[in-house]
Specification:
Length: about 100
Amino acid sequence: MNLTPTIEILRDLCERLQGACSDDEAEALDVAVDHLIDAQRKRDAHINKAVHLIRDVMAGPDGRDLETTWQFLRTKLIFDEEDLQEIESMLGLKPGKE
């Protein structure tokens, strides 16, 4: 799940609430945003790793076809649909091909 929109909304909320909430509440919101940013970085790293691994498989001596390989791997990877579509986009494939 792409958390970037949620992070942006919470950052905006933090700015608007400055002075309107207690220091503890402000700090809790900042911590929550930091955790979301960390989760987004981990998500991006997992997606990038998957893309690189798939490309490594494609570069093998067997000259595998990208679409065929992706059709096989797509059902084996543990990503939600949004992440699978992002991987497809990064690979230059049409989203939703199974």
